[in-house]
Every structure is written in structure tokens, then in C-alpha cells.
Amino acid sequence: MATSNLAALKTAKGTSRAEGEAAVVGAVEWVAARKNLLRKEKEFMRLRDELSRERRELPWEKVQKEYIFDGPAGKQKLSDLFGKHSQLIVYHFMFGPGWKEGCPSCSFLADGFDGSAIHLAHRDVSFVVVSRATMPEIEAFKNRMGWQFQWVSSFGNDFNHDYHVSFTPEERAKGKVYYNYDMTEFPAEEAPGMSVFYKNKPGEIFHTYSSYARGLDPMLVTYQWLDLTPKGRDEDGLAFTMAWVRHHDKYEDGQSVDRRTPYVPPAKVDSSCCGEKETSRRSEP
User: Would the pLDDT of 67 be above 80?
Assistant: First the structure.
């Protein structure tokens, strides 16, 4: 069935259509329309396979620096994060030092990490989350959220800055920062992303891939499910696409989203006095 025929179904005699709903048709017409879309889905899958092949053929960049991270058991080099595997995926989680909690959008992704990590390990891949927050801050938030994946702190090293997910005050003062391979405005000092590394038998480490912003979309498992539903992501008109997302322990029945108000990311904590005090808030990217 041609696309024009599919569109014609929506106004065909005998169909019922409520506002915001699609046409209602019989089984024969439905299967014809579904098979038409299936052809496009198969074409998309073939294109995705080709894109994945080209991704694997990208040249590599040798990692020259020795990065030292803070982990639950002490100091760890970048090479240590591989464990017994030759491949390493790093998720750059937006969680800066002094933040009260991690980014809600990154937490949205992180809710799916534990299920993937065990399977990745059986395909020669280590999965690690990295943030600039200190290890005590990471551990407290991780325990609150009930996550088990490996999470280390890059506080005190250049890892986040070198892979373009943390920005200095001087960089932000210029109005634009280097993010997603271009100079762009960004409202926070931390940004989301993911990077992939390979370690050869002599122990040399190579950076093979990084992706940012909408490039992280395929890792958002909940979005992939929502894309199958009649309403889809249902984010049109929101102040930004993830305005509805909350930490999984903050959803409430009957909760509504103010479509006019940008989401407010986690506040910083003022540790210079007794107790905790919110000192700043940032706009979500």
C-alpha cells in the first residue's frame, strides 16, 4: 500500500476518527498498512546496520594521558576500569562536585544500566559510569537509587574536560563551549555523553568513539518502548523534551508537568556553613 493510500484511509467512508486518533479500519486494511510500514522499518534496520559497520571502521585515537579515578576500593587507572576485558564503555553522568543529586535525565538512562552491564561483560565489554562528583557523593546517590553498576569519580583529573563533558567557568563565560563536536551554548558545567575505549595486549589504550546529546537516544530504553505507542513520547509543547522525567523515587500519582517552566536540575550544596543550603540551579540541556 502506498503512503498516499494509507493517508486516504484516514478519511475513508465508514471509519471513525476522534480528535487526536488515527483512522479505524478493518483487519485487511490494517495488515496492508502495517506491511507498508514494515518495509520502511526493514530499510531503517539495514541502514542502521551499515551505520554500525562504518562506526566500527572509524580510526582510533591513542590515549596519551594517565587518568587516575577514585573508586569504591581506592584509586584506579583508566586501564583498571577495563577489568579483564579489552573494551570499555564509559557513560559520562551529569553529576558535579557539590550537587545534591545526579541529573534526572542521566538517571533516566541509568535505570537501564544494571540489566545491560552483565550481558556486556559476556561480550568482552566493561561498562563504567564516570562523574566529577566526589566518591562519597556518588556512593550516597547510588545507594539512594538502588543501582549496582560500577561508578567512579573523575574529581581532580582532566578526563571529563578532555572528553568534552565538563566545562570550566572561563569556557562558559565566553558564551559557548565545545560540545557534540561544535561550539554551542550549554546551560550547565556538566554535560551527558558516552565514550568507548579499546585496550590491546601490550596495554595501550585507544579512544574509538564518543557520542553526545541526541546521540544517546538509542540508549534510552524507555523511549524505545514509548515510540511504539499511539501517543509516542508525548513531549510536544513541553518546555524541553525531558521536562516530565523525574528520579524514579520522585514520581507521584496525579503528578502534572508545567509545560511553560523549564526543568530545574539538582541544586548545589553550600558546605561552608552548618547544614545543607541550595546555592544555585541550572537549566536542563
Answer: yes
Residue 24 is classified by DSSP as -
CA angle 200, 205, 209 (to 5 degrees): 105
Find how far residue 236's CA is from the centre of its chain.
20
In angstroms, the CA 186 to CA 87 distance is 30
Per-residue cell: 147: 543501582
For residue 7, the model assigns a pLDDT of 47
Distance CA 222, CA 23 (A): 26
Classify residue 56 by burial, with Cβ atoms within 10 Å: 0-12, 13-18, 19+.
exposed
Q: pLDDT tens, 109-156?
A: 999 999 999 999 999 999 999 999 999 999 999 999 999 999 999 999
Domain residue spans of the chain: 61-221
Rama region for 74: left / alpha / beta (φ>0; ψ in -120 to 50; rest)? left
CATH class of the region 61-221:
alpha beta
Structure-block grid coordinates of residue 28:
485487511
